[in-house]
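Bumping with the actual sequence this time:
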Amino acid sequence: MVNLKKGLNKMKERTPGVDGETKADITADRLLKLQKDLKGHKYIPKASKRISIPKPGGGYRYLGVASAIDKVVQSTLLILLSPVAEKIFSPDSFGFRPGLGCHDALHKIRYG
């Protein structure tokens, strides 16, 4: 349950899920039930809600909004898998990496 608590703490405070629930709505009892469901392979994520956002140049950009409990699971998996994945990523990979970004890639290109 410690990992699920870390995942819950990593969630943004005010962002509600597709079910309307926020971080504050998730209790310790709810985390215990989630832990039991995950261990018993009975956890089934809810369908994400697809929201379209208009782009300035025309067209739309689509976002998927997960439920609050699904966000806890996603955050927990990110916490658990990041240290493993970081070890095998290429040192030339900068996208969506913690502590790395475009400026780091440009610095590497310029200075090696």
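The tokens above came from a reply further down the thread. Residues 16 and 22 are 5 Å apart (CA to CA).
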